[in-house]
Design brief:
single chain; 71% helix; mainly alpha
């Protein structure tokens, strides 16, 4: 049997390493994102005093069981970073690299949100501690980066790789859900920082819809990446 071309023998190890890293990253992303959703569900049961209609998920960091919400933020940050690693080799275009950057910015924002404890929504911005202000920075970074990241990545992957065409619909459905919930959050006054929020508000629901839509998008990307890498 003739030996494989030198170029093929030289490239094979690189492909194998990339394949292994992408597969592992996709699995980490799925596990970490699912863990975030599970912890968030548990906290809704453990802290019923925080009305989901007008309280942000970040407020689960406050008081008893607060450490669980921090773990949840770190878990979602890891899931987001895992998605970035899983698809990085398939985003080799200008739009793809920009999308990858925004995925990493979202991961950074979630990490900051986990490191720094938030202030309650009933506390005006002028009275925030340094920790509350830093948490706000992380939240803004994650919330504003996620829709852009989802849009660019969902656009590039099916266009450049035929194997991703089968996942085009769930990619765009979850991306649309991210944008719609983001818009609802803004319309509901979720960016108000004057401490005037109360039971009549509903931006808490939009906040939860947004983070669940983003989690769903991460799971779609990670699951598809794992499936494709497994068949490669």
């Amino acid at each position: 049997m003739p030996a494989a071309p030198v170029s093929a023998r030289l490239q094979a190890p690189g492909r194998t390493v990339t394949h292994t890293i992408s597969t592992l990253a996709a699995r980490v992303a799925m596990t970490s994102t699912a863990l975030f959703v599970a912890i968030l569900a548990v906290l809704h049961l453990a802290k019923p005093e925080l009305a989901p209609s007008w309280r942000l998920i970040s407020e689960y960091e406050l008081g008893q069981h607060g450490w669980l919400m921090r773990v949840a933020f770190f878990s979602l940050a890891l899931g987001t970073a895992g998605v970035a690693v899983a698809v990085a080799s398939r985003l080799r275009s200008a739009a793809g690299y920009i999308g990858l950057l925004f995925v990493l910015l979202a991961a950074a924002g979630l990490t900051i949100a986990g490191v720094f404890q938030t202030a309650a929504v009933t506390v005006a911005k002028e009275a925030w501690s340094m920790s509350g202000a830093m948490h706000g920075v992380g939240a803004i970074l994650a919330i504003q980066s996620a829709p852009i990241a989802a849009t660019l990545v969902s656009w590039v992957l099916p266009r450049r790789h035929a194997a991703w065409l089968a996942s085009r619909r769930p990619l765009w459905l979850t991306t649309a859900a991210i944008w719609l919930s983001f818009a609802a959050f803004l319309i509901a006054g979720g960016t108000r920082v004057d401490g005037s929020q109360g039971p009549g508000d509903w931006y808490g629901w939009a906040n939860r819809a947004f983070i669940l839509a983003f989690s769903a998008w991460l799971l779609v990307v990670a699951r598809t990446a794992a499936r494709i890498e497994r068949r490669a």
